[in-house]
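Newbie here. two chains, one complex. Structure please?
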Amino acid sequence: MLQPHAHSDGKPHVYTAYHPRWLRHHTSTYWWLQKRSYFAFILRELSCLFVAWFAVYLLMLVRAIGRGEAAYQDFLAWSASAPVLLLNLVSFGFIVYHAITFFMAAPQAIVVHIGGRRVASGLVGGAHYLAWMVVSAVVAWLLLGAR
Amino acid sequence: MIKRHPEPLLWVLFSAGGVMSALLMPILMALFGLAFPLGWIAPPSYEHINALVAHPLTRLILFALSMLSLFHWAHRFRYTLYDGLQIKHLNELVAILCYGSALAGSVIAALLLWWPHVIR
């Protein structure tokens, strides 16, 4: 029910009857520092920054290869410079953390049924880790073994 | 008429990017980011890596990896800002910047892989 009421500036002020008071708890901007699990959560979320960095780094490598041998060698030399090396070292840690946490979550996200029975979550998770190992071995072989 | 929301598609791109980057990035980062620069392993010769990147399947995989990883970043970073820094009032601007950057990065990736002369 609305009740118009004259305001001091002449404009009608509208009240809503029985309007509830907002119950809002203020959450600190630094809530993720309060618990170790919250901090691990935010680190996992921030791993996406390093995933994006490596996508850019990979595209820079592709660009260097497209420009010729000298550009490829320059890229390798630039990768060996201290700031890039340090960034890639940190990125490697975050990307491995991303991979482990993503595969850990996979059995909860993917529910597989075979013959009307649910496949055990350990098997779904294990298949992801196995795929990770196989893909890594194939990539390493393509880059190092098949030359 | 049913209004279509982009959210399910964004979640699919996020998940696909998460899986692809988890499968491929650790080994690529270990080699190109650490082992080759630190001299632990000799990097592949230019002829070898050029032939590898020139293969259509490699290009397709590199494009999928770059594009999906960028959309993975966009989606996760958007929610990190939303939950972590609680900048909910800038939700639309953050979404435009995140997905816009991922889209721009994907276009650049396609150009670099199939039409490199365009952006040389």
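Moderator note: Chain A has a mean pLDDT of 87. The domain at 3-109 of chain A is CATH 1.20.1300.10 (3 helical TM bundles of succinate and fumarate reductases). Thread marked as resolved.
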